[in-house]
Amino acid sequence: MLASSQETHVGVEAWRGLAAWMVVYVHYWGFSGHDWPPMRFAHTGVDLFFVLSGFVFAPYLWGKPLSPTAFALRRFFRIYPAYLLALAVYVGLKLQAGHPPLYLWEHLSFFQVQSREMAFYYNPPFWSLPAEVEFYVVLPWLAWSLRQARWAWAGWLLAALGLRVVLGYFGDPSSQDASYIMNFHLPGVGVEFLLGALAWRVAQIQLHLCWRTLLVLVGFAGWCALAVWFGQVGDAGVNNSVLKGQMGALAALCFAPMVAGMLGSPTARPPRDTTIGPPESRAWHVAALWAGRLSYGVYLFHMAALQMVQPWRETLAEHWPLGLQSLAVLLTVLMALLSYWLWEEPWRQFGRRQAASMEAAN
């Protein structure tokens, strides 16, 4: 679901793929009674996407030229066509099941996060896209403010942290009040994007391998500790604790050092000729690139794939030993591939050409 001038960076693509499949795991196997409870915390793959978005767009915050109109064109044609296709699929599934196409205008305009029912009506992962778009909207303004005063960076980060704490404290999941809803919009998730941007800044420092490894280990240990606790108490336990509304931000706080430590300089690109290097290096390179390229499609379509195979549950139980979810995984990959080749990439290239023409004209 992310793109930038660094999208061929193999490490970024690998992280994108990981984020998408973390979400798939939770929706397919999490809370099934047969899963490992700490892995239910893999739903924070969404927060990893937010961190990565902040990471790949961070150069604009530190001086990279930004044309707001051209940037908006690239973002629109990267995000919206694939989302529109996925929304059409889910609307078709609703109609097939005999349900009315409610909240359609809200979903078409990215205003669907007004309640849990509205946000989840077609596809639960759709809730994260408005926050992503909101970050795109404010990014030019954030970049401008930081050009005026470099110290403003610390102020924005502290303000975002404070706002997240306040929204989490006053938010009521049962009534879904304004504080609870805003925690899923940019005021609430803004800290996660800023942590990703900070991770990019740290990654520019020429740290010794030992320090980078320490960043990764600290982040991973923190995420594991949160996962174990979440596996024990669940959402109910979190909502009854002082960490109510903060688990996504805390997960992002763990992802940020891992991303910073593992990716290094985000301007480094892998060789364009993938025949260079040992076979295992080429295989990793290709696998990571495609994991990232398909991550948006996997994120958008995996719930549709699961719904599509549900009618064959009993037949599959007798003749498909790998289980219903494994067939849904295969269908998800197929749908993501077709979407990428036939729809996402053509529209993305079109948007890039339009943006380049606009920048050249200026």
Description:
This protein has 362 residues and is mostly helical. It has one domain (10-361). It has 15 helices and no strands. The protein has helices spanning 10-28, 45-61, 68-96, 104-108, 116-120, 128-148, 152-170, 178-182, 186-203, 209-239, 247-263, 279-293, 295-309, 313-319, 324-361. Helix 1 (10-28) packs antiparallel against helix 2 (45-61), helix 9 packs parallel to helix 11 and helix 13 (295-309) runs antiparallel to helix 15 (324-361). The longest helix is centred in the C-terminal third of the chain and has 38 residues, at 324-361. It is globular, with a radius of gyration of 20 Å.
Distance between the termini: 29 Å
Average pLDDT confidence is 91
Radius of gyration: 20 Å
Any idea how many domains? 1
- Main pleated sheet: none
Q: What are the secondary-structure elements, in order, as H or E?
A: HHHHHHHHHHHHHHH
How would you summarize this macromolecular structure in one to three sentences?
InterPro entries: Acyl_transf_3_dom (IPR002656), Acyltransferase_3 (IPR050879). The protein has helices at residues 10-28, 45-61, 68-96, 104-108, 116-120, 128-148, 152-170, 178-182, 186-203, 209-239, 247-263, 279-293, 295-309, 313-319, 324-361.
